[in-house]
Amino acid sequence: MQPTFQFLPTNEAAATQLQQALGLDPVIARLLVQRGILTPEAATTFFKPRIDGLHHPYLMKDMDKAVERLDAALQTGEKILLYGDYDVDGATSVTMMYSFLSRLTQHLDYYLPDREKEGYGLSAAGVEYARTNGCTLLIAMDCGIKGNESVALANRYQIDVIVCDHHLPEGELPAAVANLDPKRPDCPYPYKELCGCGVAFKLAQALALKYNTPSEELASLLDLVAVAIACDIVPITGENRVLAYFGLQRLNRSPRTGLWALAESVNRTHPLTVQDLVFGLGPAINSAGRLGDARDAVKLMLAADRNSALDAARRLAQRNAERRRVDYATADEARRRFRDTEGWEDKKSIVLFDPGWHKGIIGISASRIAEDFHKPTVILTESNGRAVGSARSVKGFDLYAALQACDDLFYSFGGHAHAAGMQMPVENVPKFRERFELVVEKTIPKSLEKPMIDIAAIVRFDEITPKFWNELQRFEPFGPSNLSPVFVAQNVQNTGYSKLLENNHARLSLRQHPNGPIFNGVAFGLGDVFMQVKDQPFNVAFTLHENSWKGEKKLELMIKGIEAV
């Protein structure tokens, strides 16, 4: 399904005012306004993030209680268990807190649940581990805000719990010593979009204030926070943008040994960007929990010796390669099954179940299928006698609300508007497929049934100068709510040197005018579309990318869409 181009709404008067006040390129001013930046002061803050612009950690509800309990544990030598979810956010949270607290105590241990046996969240098995190993304080990171039963179990064992979570609470909060979560309805913390590692960092920041910890010790944790922000797909706005900005700087200037080794093993060159974290380091870290023990990722990120770190990173990279193999095979099978469904073109949703699919892969497969067919998608497998699923949405459709209309069919479910997970009796799968289709059919707007590319501005090739590129780089780091802008160049022509590549990809060589500049670009999955227009003028939607080859840097186009004129 080919996407259509739609221009992002822009307050042109505000853009003109900003352009004149700061002497900006008109396109740059438009990009600022599209991000809600309307004044010169706001633009200066955006372009020059300041680490002292972070919010005071004690603004977070229960932070005083968390610091008091953690301080008491440190002063008396209690054993502390750091518990994190098995994904990147959880693994980096554990690594970060271990790195910080190990300077203050030797009585530390960490635990990440088994994805297959324990599933998501603070598990009873994790609490039992804490009891067996003599831990009297458990810090749950990237989970716990819905862990009422497990927290109650910990309390029965006289183990106190501090929760550092960023998911939306439901109902009564767990009986923890402190529930740190900016999404608590009663939490006054000004920024609500922190990831789990971000919330854990605020705890470290608060303890650092109490202990007068040198700022460099706290700053040394930001590389891990940046990885978590990028890979957990949280908005890169406000405080997240500040943390990601300085975290990437540290990652590129003085990375910890484990992350350096990981970048080497997945062939990501410096300077690393958010894209490198999302598509390079993140999948390798995630593969530890998807196809093995998530603690392997923490061990790697804590490694101090370069040789052992490289060995461990290569093992994770190999495990990720195996994950990709299983992932592609699962996605191929899922595509075939959906196309074999009677009337598949007219369906508004996709629900597929196979008891043999790997539980650690179905989330990635759901993302691929949702993107391929542009329909809300649920991929289910069987685990411990239950149907276990991962769901992914299309842009603009509230997946969580649609699943709520089916919650009587589930043992449990959780997530947000874009992604979710659930468990249900296997016999409920057909009922769920039917109900979910009806709900999506009734609630999805017609405008969301076809993919759209949000266009930031029209640009001419001769406007893409080094000065323009330098201004554009000031918007980094790019990510959700601060996406790399997509531009449109109109009436471009094939120079004759474009060529098709394997797997329906194409390398394009384009110009707008006979004597104008030539830009090369890569069009993934658009080879067939290009062949239809290659002999006539057409429009291209693209993002800009700087390619480095043998020391020479050159701007290239990453083609997002092709439109016949």
Descriptive overview:
By secondary structure, this protein is of the alpha/beta class. Helices cover 42% and strands 19% of the residues. It has 20 helices and 19 strands. The chain has helices spanning 12-22, 26-34, 40-47, 63-76, 88-101, 124-132, 148-156, 196-211, 215-219, 222-231, 238-253, 257-265, 274-291, 295-302, 306-339, 362-373, 399-404, 429-443, 466-473, 527-533; strands spanning 4-7, 80-84, 108-111, 137-141, 160-164, 178-180, 350-353, 377-383, 386-392, 412-415, 419-425, 452-455, 457-458, 487-494, 499-500, 506-511, 518-523, 538-549, 552-564. Strands 3-2-4-5-6 form a five-stranded parallel sheet, sandwiched between helices. Helix 10 (222-231) crosses helix 11 and helix 13 (274-291) packs across helix 15 (306-339). The model has no long low-confidence stretch (mean pLDDT 94).
